[in-house]
Amino acid sequence: MSTLLEVNNLKTHFGNKRRVVKAIDGIDFKIKKGETVALVGESGCGKSMTSLSIMGLVPAPEGRIVDGEILLEGVDLVGLPEKRMYGIRGKEIAMIFQEPMTSLNPVLTIGDQLTSVIIHHLKVGKKEAENRAVEMLDLVGFSDSRKLLKDYPHRLSGGMRQRVMIAMAMSCNPKLLIADEPTTALDVTIQAQVLELMKKISKEFSTSILLITHDLGVVSELAERVIVMYAGQIVEIADIDDLFKSPFHPYTVGLIESVPKIEGEIERLYSIPGNVPAPGEVIQGCKFAARCSKVFDRCRKEMPTLRKMDESRSVRCFLYDDEEAE
Amino acid sequence: MSFLEQKAMVTEPFIVEENHNYVHESIWRLMFRKFMANKLAVIGAFLMIIIIGSALFAPWLAPQDPSKQVLLDKLSPPGEKYILGADILGRDTLSRLLYGARISLLVGFASVAGSIFIGTAVGAIAGYYGGTLDAVLMRIVDAVISFPSLFLLITLVTIFEPSVFTLIGVFAVFGWTGTARLVRGEFLSLRSSEFVLAAKTLGIRSSRIIFSHILPNAMGPIIVSATLGVGGVILAEAALSYLGLGIQPPTPSWGNMLQSAQNPQIMLGAWWYPLFPGFMILITVLAFNFIGDGLRDAFDPKISE
């Protein structure tokens, strides 16, 4: 499989000259064609900012990409003129959001919203765009799609709206779909439907999916590879089975421990002690050191690098450093 | 309860969810229903239709030529010949009221249309783009608001020949600041809403996002402020005309019909003569305010039906 998206040393910072918040502090990863990659981590670790950076929608002027490149099939999206980004957003990369209740415009019909995207990107007439819209709505499981076109979003339930969002995002057949917490706001049965739908789509259209979530259940359901982020950095990259079987980084271990298990009786649910460092906090050494159960002296002095363990696995921790292993 | 009825009750929520009863009721229809539920607003709308209708059909409704003077009949009380009496030059008050409505409403609507246009454009740009542009535009708004507008209006009307069009222009140029602030506020909150971000991720251009995505969502407050604005302008026009700086006689306007009320002889001796134009101004402004309040409630999603 060839590489679709390659992010190299991406740094997105916020603030002004006096105070800089490093929302993303040098991340590297690749997404192959047709692959589903999950990006996990606690709130505030830079997951959503990663997706906005890829989209070129980092809120200006406070935030900006200061370094690095984002290669979509070899074309660097960083610094690409806005005019060309209009052609990439929605066409090459599309996105769905956490809150289906608010991500559709309340005053426009479903049809208006869908067809305007199709007309813009595929350069087709109104009639053709409508047919395409109906086709997409059928695909996401609506039975009466043509009538739905004339409907307003407030008449739809959360699950239906999320399906409309998926139809809209997929309408121009993007190569990459970024799903930012797509099931967080939905109830469990609808979550299953939406996940099923996303699986179907990635298979049928061989669309790559970047799944941003903090829900490891969703990760295990959908993803092939997992990227764990902490405080703006990647701390571990692993294939899905390896990650759940033998997590390397203490943070990953903590995340998996925190998921409630069905077997056995537990007095108290495990949680990682402490909090994510406040944005803008300057930390010497490993950013996770203050919360780590296996912390030792070196962690507080030096920053570990992201070490490649084998073909598919990298981890940012001194525990797996050759020097320390001795 | 029979088994069938029970079954129907149990399955009902699923029917609503899955088969989705396709009643294409737009939000506008819903708002119309909310508006109609507000009695004062309906009364206001009813009065408005009558006032606008009589202004439009003034040539057919007016019993006499509004400029025809019969000096012998000056200041005649309401009666058979002059339903609402005659003025100091013996002109029929009713006819002058009907023709005056045309001028007052024209000034009201046209200047509000102008100020809404300027205000929306400035507010939308300031709110959507933010930053330095926003700061500059809002300081201009602050400056315009700080002008003592009545004196400036008087000065301007004195410099330019006072005519209907100067009045409209002057009111438009000084009336847009409120709308600009309002629209800016709406855009500021809407531009960071999730559906705008979603539209951006789909590659929709800024101009389209401003006009087709954000502006319709801000329409409610704009319409409300326009409605209330018309009442305000009609009052301001009346005030200027009363001072003799607005619409110039012989063209009748409600304001300049009141002018002669400055004379105590008329005030005491022929009270009916200033009463009617004053009453019309009151009714019209009140009607606009009722409609404005009704629209405000109709557009407010927090107030349920």
Automatic annotation (TrEMBL), chain A:
PROSITE patterns: ABC_TRANSPORTER_1, ABC_TRANSPORTER_2
Leader sequence segment: none
Principal subcellular localization: membrane
Keyword Cell membrane annotated: yes
Family note: Belongs to the ABC transporter superfamily.
One Gene Ontology term of the molecular function aspect: ATP hydrolysis activity
Name the record gives this protein: Peptide/nickel transport system ATP-binding protein
GO CC annotation: plasma membrane
Domain ABC transporter span(s) in chain numbering: 5-256
Keyword set, alphabetical order: ATP-binding, Cell membrane, Membrane, Nucleotide-binding, Transport
Keyword Metal-binding attached: no
A Pfam family of this chain: oligo_HPY
Topological type in the membrane: Peripheral membrane protein
NCBIfam families attached to this UniProt entry: oligo_HPY
Location in or out of the cell: Cell membrane
CDD domains found in the cross-reference section: ABC_NikE_OppD_transporters
Gene3D superfamilies in UniProt: P-loop containing nucleotide triphosphate hydrolases
Organism name: Sporosarcina limicola
GO biological process: peptide transport
UniProtKB/TrEMBL annotation, chain B:
Alphabetized Gene3D superfamilies for the sequence: MetI-like
Membrane-spanning intervals of the chain: 40-62, 103-129, 136-159, 165-183, 222-245, 266-291
Location in or out of the cell: Cell membrane
Keywords: Cell membrane, Membrane, Transmembrane, Transmembrane helix, Transport
Pfam families: BPD_transp_1 (PF00528), OppC_N (PF12911)
Cellular compartments per GO CC: plasma membrane
Presence of keyword Cytoplasm: no
Primary location: membrane
PANTHER family membership: D,D-DIPEPTIDE TRANSPORT SYSTEM PERMEASE PROTEIN DDPC-RELATED, OLIGOPEPTIDE TRANSPORT SYSTEM PERMEASE PROTEIN APPC
Family under the similarity heading: Belongs to the binding-protein-dependent transport system permease family.
Name by which UniProt lists this protein: Peptide/nickel transport system permease protein
